[in-house]
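User: Working on a comparison across species. This one is Lipoprotein from Ekhidna lutea. Can you predict its structure so I can line it up against the others?
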Amino acid sequence: MNRIRIVFFISVLTLISCNKKTTGNSVSNEYADCDWNASKNYALCTSEIESNLKDNNPKGLEYKILDKNNNVIKQGTVDRGSVSWLDDGAIQITRIPGNISEDMDKDDFVEVYKISSDSTISKKAYLESKN
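Assistant: Here's the predicted structure for Lipoprotein from Ekhidna lutea:
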């Protein structure tokens, strides 16, 4: 009976250690976190990196957009900010500047990368083009 418990325990540990976080399709890369778009055509993968800035936030963000075949569509880094899906074919890249003036709003810090056209525009322009 003890032998069965030991085999079971080792099997469970092996399965846990081999488990990778995936959502939908499988993405094999060095990134800590990958999120698929709604149609599961592209994955947005991110990982923390050391920032080039000398301030209170020593961590930056490295990102890649991968297709189903793990081909890199776009990659980049953000020292202060975030990267996330805006819709099925676009990601928003938020870069927070060191100095913010009173006449700026949050959309002034956001650019949108459109996968289909391989272009980057301001979020304001992107939202206006959707109307």
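For your comparison, note: Confidence is low (pLDDT under 50) at residues 11-25.

User: Helpful, thanks.
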